[in-house]
Amino acid sequence: MANIRTCNKHNMIACVEKTEHNADFHQIVDYLTGCSINYSLLVDPDLIGPWLQQFWAIASLRVINEVPHIRAMVAGKRVLISEETIRADLLFDDAGTIKPASTPIEAHKSLGKDEEGEDVDVHLYRSMIGCLMYLTASRPDIMFAVCLCARFQVTPKVSHMHAVKRIFRYLKHQPKLGLWYPKDSPFHLEAFSDSDYAGDNHDRRSTSGGCQYLGRRLVSWQCKKQTIVAISSTEAEYVAAASCCAQVLWMQNQLLDYGFNFMNTEIHIDNESTICIVKNPVLHSKTKHIQIRHHFIRDCYEQRLINVVKVHTDDNVADLLTKGFDLARFNFLVVTIGMMNP
């Protein structure tokens, strides 16, 4: 098998050119490499404030294209940021004959430990997961499927390998899909939160999904299995909202360094009960089962750092990061979340 070398995704934004001004190179790069809005920084330098441009010249799209696996394309008033898909023939001998898949995972598919299944090569499986994890830096459409398969790296089975190969089959079907960033989009911070209640058939834990936008530009997304067993869908949604809120607070603090104050950020949630709990400052018997550490979202709401807004389930783009879907629903969410083909 060929060795595959990948780089940390945060290093993608380190393509800057130092000017004649006496600026602290490492200090500025530290700011950039710790910021989850790296794609926006590359695409539109105006977003990071005029003070930074006095000392730095952000690399042009030509320079971005010289970064390994990164491609930037201009189409009208939009810019496409995508990663060059790792070739499947590095991992499969029959890559030229594999049948493309229309979705990265089967609808409502839930993998288990499959203790009775046949073992597969651990090193090969982990190498495949590593390649796919790298691609998730610009491919939120495969985020859930990759994270699901990554849970079985200790003792992978044949069923797990088939699920991983399906992701590569999907990448063969959609090799150039990327994030579209419209230049004329308004510049404001908003987020979406969702969860898949008891989606894991083994331990019945839920999966949290969240994504953050600057205008219509998707800049951050998360998919994580919850550490607790939620006894209600409201609790699962509440835990997911608290996780999304933590990411929003971190982004608010980062953007303050660039002179942008995004207080009272809207977090879109499709569960009415969760919104009521966030807005209700009184703890009562119906919320005693929720761990205290998740209640910090209430303080954030009272301090007007965030605002929770009801969104219809069909329009909640974070749903893409929590479960598998049929082709029609999957394609709708991919377009809605902000991904297109060049």
Automatic annotation (TrEMBL):
This is Reverse transcriptase Ty1/copia-type domain-containing protein. The lineage of its organism: Eukaryota, Viridiplantae, Streptophyta, Embryophyta, Tracheophyta. It comes from the Eukaryota. InterPro entries: DNA/RNA_pol_sf.
